[in-house]
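Please predict the structure of the following assembly.
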Amino acid sequence: MKKLINKPEDVVLEELQGIELAHPDLVKIHYDPNYIVRADAPVKGKVALVSGGGSGHEPMHGGFVGKGMLDAACPGAVFTSPTPDQMLEATKAVDGGAGVLHIVKNYTGDIMNFEMAADLAKGEGIDVEAVVVDDDVAVKDSLYTAGRRGVGLTVLMEKIVGAAAEEGRSLKDIAALARKINGQGRSMGMALTSCTVPQAGKPTFDLPDDEMEIGIGIHGEPGRTRMKVKPADDITEMLMMPIIEDLPFKSGDEVLLFVNSMGGTPLIELYIVYRKAVEIAEKHGLKVVRKLIGPYITSLDMAGASITMLKMDSDLVKLWDAPVKTAGMRWGI
Amino acid sequence: MTITNNDVIKWLQAFDQVITEKKDYLTELDSIIGDADHGANMFRGFQAVMTKLPSVQDKDIGSIFKTVGMTLLSTVGGAGGPLYSTLFIQAGNRLNGKMELTLLDWAEALEAANNGIVRLGKAEVGDKTMVDALTPAVQALLEASKDGKTMEEGLRMSADAAKKGMESTIPLVARKGRASYLGERSAGHQDPGATSSYLLLEAAADVWTKK
């Protein structure tokens, strides 16, 4: 393992210390339990948004804390859900009296820990709602799996719902908006290489030099199929078609197209994917009205990409365009 | 023979040793069908438990168990955190105020623990989870107690049943947790959660029968 770290067990702590030094204008860091809150938290009268998950997906979630997006993020150990005490303390720290929305990605551990935290927060008189993101079409949603994973759509949801909270909408309306977004967005990812978890010290899975994994998760969980590496255009088609067919996206739909790097794939390749994804979308009568391209929900050093499409309407477009000021996403301010 | 609060402390210390030795093995199992963190997470949790134990070592067994449960809840994370936390808290609730345990006490405490895990994780036997190791171990303990077996016999039977249960996960297709994303590709690999559960009961049999 070759990584720019000191000790594997100090990775998350030292990352937080770096964030604290880099962005004192945006966020405050609380240690033990670990959580990141907006510098101006709690914002009185505003619904607060709390998310969290294992570390290793940066900039998600800590990089999305700030005006117009999240009020707090709880970082767990690498690829490990944070614990209920972190979530409870973060929830209390950002509650401005209008209630708190928990944005939870659909993984067994995240669901259990956030449920326990929500129960504890409710016991302390805080109004908490939880929304689960499960947009990964690579996983069959059946009784025989833990359900679809929460992946790229989480980023779009946190931005859009963050803008709605900033506008002063109610907890009930914001939770409904988040569920609407989850209902009309879909994602799929692929990997060219494995990632290496610092504490494991070696790649999570073996992927020969000339092979790729289609339908990968963001923790190196293997996907649908493994095959020989193909040109970018073919790979883009293999990601776009299941997304289009699953919702399904229909001719005339306006969409936000999000091409994401898994961490190890450079921007130059993401634009090649974006170019083909737009062509496929247009061939199906979809109009790409907004886009996002870059590393936003990563999987440590994994090479690969994911595509997310969200069906848009005028409200979603307005909220997407609203100002946001975070370490990981910033415009309009 | 009964199990005293001091024996419980010794068991937890022994399990911490086992986790320290086996953490890479558990993470290896988890990297095949999960996300390569089970060993590191359990290690972090039991390191924290070890620092808490001195403050409760003279307390009743229920208090010791609940302290372990709360410590794991705030240190392990993932799915293993709430599940192992539930194991200790549910068992602890059954053992409130007790300074020593009979075989039946232990059987009933583990039964409550397993029921709590089943409720929280919504897993059944055959889903390729820790429930596959714990359920037969609980059955073995209840039967041993009913048949008037000695503590030593009961503990050995439960550890053996957990081992068989753990091994039974190898051919299974996972239906819960991250391994379920693999579908058929999860078959042929031993479940890491069932493995750590077996190690927990094996440590109990090992420490408590050598008294």
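The longest strand of chain A covers residues 48-55. The radius of gyration of chain A is 19 Å.
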